[in-house]
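User: I'm writing a short methods note and want a consistent example. For PTS beta-glucoside transporter subunit EIIBCA, I'll paste the sequence; you return only the structure tokens, no commentary, since I'll be parsing the reply automatically.
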Amino acid sequence: VLPIILTVWLMSWVERFAEKVSPSIIKFFVKPMLILLITAPLALVVVGPAGILLNDLVAAGAGAIDRHASWLIPMLMGTLQPFLIITGTAWAMTPIATGQLSKSGYEMINGPGMLASNVAMGAATLCVALKTKNSNLRQLASSSGFTALLGITEPALYGVLLKFRRVLIAAMIGGGCAGVYAGVSGLVRYAFVSPGLAALPAFIGENPMNIVHALVTCAISIVVTFTLTWFIAFKDVPEEQDAVSETPQPAVSPTSEGETEVFSPLRGQVVALSDVNDDVFSGGLLGEGLAIRPEEGVLRAPFSGTVMMFLPSCHAVGLQSDSGLELLIHIGIDTVNLNGQHFSSTLKVGDKVEAGQALIRFDIPAIEQAGYDLITPVIVVNGDAQRALRLTAAAQVDYGEPLMVQSAKEAQV
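Assistant:
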């Protein structure tokens, strides 16, 4: 896997060189030919062997760690997986894991720790669903908690855990404890799937006790996380607050009784959420909404409210209005990998913002030149069966123009 990654990285530099030297009149023919003629020999003679050597060295290092401290890697993965997901580095160890899998028929780098963490996040979220008296929170937590147990953790992480930080810490502790057991017991994964209860067959292999260790890992993760969340971590949100956040949030004036309007935070072309090239957004896992392809590099507040969530990479922000509407705005697809490059903002969690206020500035040409799609999902993350979301945007929107309205369940979604 590493040789492929290194070859693609090399090709990105060759492509820039070919772009500069290719005559414009025949660029469509000369440019790809140059890329192929330069990259192919270098990949076969230099990059390929170097990548294989690097892959073997890293795999050997991971194997040495596993022999002398078998609990360390699963414990770290079980504890830190939520932060790896947030920063887009959850699969950073995949090349090593796939190398192990191809050589030994199993891997212990990703699978055991991710199993512990995913189940812990699901258990924490379901515990919130069982304990809360807030019907909106219960509905969100029950559905996202179930999917987290099966291995899809983004709805639970972004929808619940990031808003209840003590619950997130409980999930990290539970995942870490289960990861220690997974490492000490020698748990391995025999197939490359997203770890969760639905993927337990991937832990069935030559060692008949391996699946037993996987089940015990899940049990430890659930029991520790559920106990910490139930008795220590979770403080309920009153029904009348109609929110999923522990922080009191300010208000925005509704358009009429029972309705809250969201105005466009960007200038650009409106795109259906189903057309976004990311299954988490297009599949509606985080909620309903739409997407905008921005034409100006400034994100403005779509209503007056409070910053609920803001990542250091400045590519995404979560806002809440005083009427309880919670909005996630995610600038671009996979732009977390830029680590804040080409983005700038002074926002921090808890800041109060006014409608139309500039929140984030970003360099559209630089981001697109880096190969990222800037389509920006705008999603209501706390929708429920009692409230309908009505999209009101035109095909082209400007700052402050109507985007969507959340109202009582009289409107059709």
